[in-house]
Amino acid sequence: MPIDPRRCASLVATVTLLAGLALNAAFGGGAEALTGRFGTVATATASSTPAPTVTPTPGVTSAPTPTPTPTPKPTPLPEPVATSLSGRSGGTAAMRTVTMHGSSMANVARVVVGSQDAQQLTLLSPTALRFVVPTAQDFVPGTVPIALVSATDRAWIPTHLTWTYAVRNGVDREMAYAAANWNQRRSARFGYIPKNDCVNFTSQLLTARGWKESAAWFDDGPVSHTVIQKKTVAAAKRVPVTTTKKVHGKTVTVPVTITKKVHGTTVKTAVMKTVKTKVVEHVKKVVTTVAASAPWVSSTAMSGWLASRPDLATRLTYAQRDEVRVGDIVQFNWTGVGSSWDHTAVVSKIVVDPDGTRHIWYAEHTNHQLYGGSIGTLSMRAGYRHMRVQFWLLKH
């Protein structure tokens, strides 16, 4: 049978198709596998998203602890050494400014003169320090050592330096008298005024300073005389116990009695009780006064007298207290009302804080103190916040 060319073409195509299917089956990948096998780019088909490539996470490790950098320790300052002092002595009541020379003066926290701290330390240079020497302790003359206290370690550093206190002038004598007599409650020479001896004592200090009595300011001493004073006292007294009863229709008071046998006889005895009653007695008393002028014993009179004597004193207000010195007079009006003065004393100690605050103490009678005050502290207490204060700057 002749071969029809069209049938041949179909047959070839059929054979080719069958061969391709066989090959796909052999390789197990279908048409795409086949074309892929032979490097032909296939048409993309829908498929699931391939899993991303996971980069392995390295093992977690703790961060290394940094090594702390040691804080450098400051080089300690050398301990101070004192070599010289611009002064070596002063009055017992004087406050004197001096300069100390040496090494490492910046390392000085305190200067101690005897048993007291020097005041107002001022560093002038690494080799110089200025301060104020305080008055003598209780105004006692003598030589005392000077020591330093280190600012670095608070070490106590003795020095070869000393300070000599001596009685040199009237102020030293005035304050020595104050130290010896601040607690005395009698005086054969000047007398004593109980509960009101403040001005009498101040006047005595002025005489110790060197002031002379005059026709206006004097004390002739104590004067004693006998007076009869009435005194009411409570006395014990025995009185009968009473009661009331009706007698013929009237209320009468009758003593309460008890009946008892006395030697076989029945007697009635009144019941007694003890009561306290006020009795006026006349008592003889010796009164000691002071024969003195008013400015010697009265605060107000002394203020008026000093105001008339500018040759002796100058009045200072409390606002002018920076000018006050040991030995000057201080006066108080406790309520701040009126022109009178209630109390008089003598300045016995002045302390200036590093911030400049000034504390003033005073010697006094009536309250009897060598270092009463301080005035600034007193002014802050209840009952004294309205008080007025004045000073008298003494000229000699």
Features:
single chain, 396 residues, alpha+beta, six-stranded antiparallel sheet, five-stranded mixed sheet, disordered N terminus
Overview of this protein structure:
A six-stranded antiparallel beta sheet has the order 16-21-17-18-19-20. It has a five-stranded mixed beta sheet with strand order 2-9-8-4-5, with no helix packed on it. The protein has a four-stranded antiparallel beta sheet with strand order 1-3-7-6, with no helix packed on it. It is elongated and about 115 Å long. It has seven helices and 21 strands. The protein has 396 residues and is α+β, with helices and mostly antiparallel strands. Residues 1-56 have low confidence and may be disordered. 18% of the residues lie in helices and 41% in strands. The protein has helices spanning 5-27, 30-37, 170-181, 198-209, 294-297, 299-307, 375-378, and strands at residues 81-85, 89-91, 96-103, 108-113, 116-117, 119-125, 128-133, 142-150, 156-166, 219-240, 242-247, 250-255, 257-262, 265-270, 272-292, 313-317, 329-333, 343-352, 358-364, 369-373, 388-394.
